[in-house]
Amino acid sequence: MFIQTEATPNPATLKFLPGRVVMPEGTFEAKNPDQGEVSPLAQRLFAVPGVTGVFFGYDFVTVTKADGEWQHLKPAILGAIMEHFMTGAPLFANGYGVSQEDGEEFFDEQDAATVETIKELLETRIRPAVAGDGGDITFRGFKDGTVYLVMKGACSGCPSSTATLRHGIQNLLRHFLPDVREVQAV
């Protein structure tokens, strides 16, 4: 088994590509070992000293570190991922179902058409690019011209996430939807 690694815009996060589907649908994020208890792979990764976050996407795993150098952490992380896939262990234990919920969505019913367009743009133009950087972004709400988004994986806590929101996503949404004034992370 050959696992590729890619840098992400977040220097504290590295993207691992095991060459197979990790999660057929949805995403999973654990920001601490307690949240990772539902996944044998997350448990293995949190057992590596210095690992503070785990994110699973369709065909990748991103790992966030607190401190230490990647050159020292990477072999142990690669070993944990390889061991997991070689043993054939399930990604989640005890029939755990992945939830896409990031909290209740909120918007006025009169903005339903605008919200549908926002979601379509997120799905077709923004999420694929964000996944390429080892993260995910989902819609949370729309109120008074402000779009509220949840950033996950490599995007959560990334130094360039503010620039991504302001210059990338905000400009794209404003181009297609004049009602959008600003974009904020929640």
TrEMBL record:
It holds the Pfam family Nfu_N. InterPro entries: FSCA_dom_sf, Nfu/NifU_N, Nfu/NifU_N_sf, NFU1-like, NIF_FeS_clus_asmbl_NifU_C. Transmembrane segments: none annotated. Gene3D superfamilies: Fe-S cluster assembly (FSCA), Scaffold protein Nfu/NifU, N-terminal domain. Residues 3-88 form the Scaffold protein Nfu/NifU N-terminal domain. PANTHER family: IRON-SULFUR CLUSTER SCAFFOLD PROTEIN NFU-RELATED, NFU1 IRON-SULFUR CLUSTER SCAFFOLD HOMOLOG, MITOCHONDRIAL. Belongs to the NifU family. This is NifU family protein. It comes from Microvirga terrestris. The lineage of its organism: Bacteria, Pseudomonadati, Pseudomonadota, Alphaproteobacteria, Hyphomicrobiales.
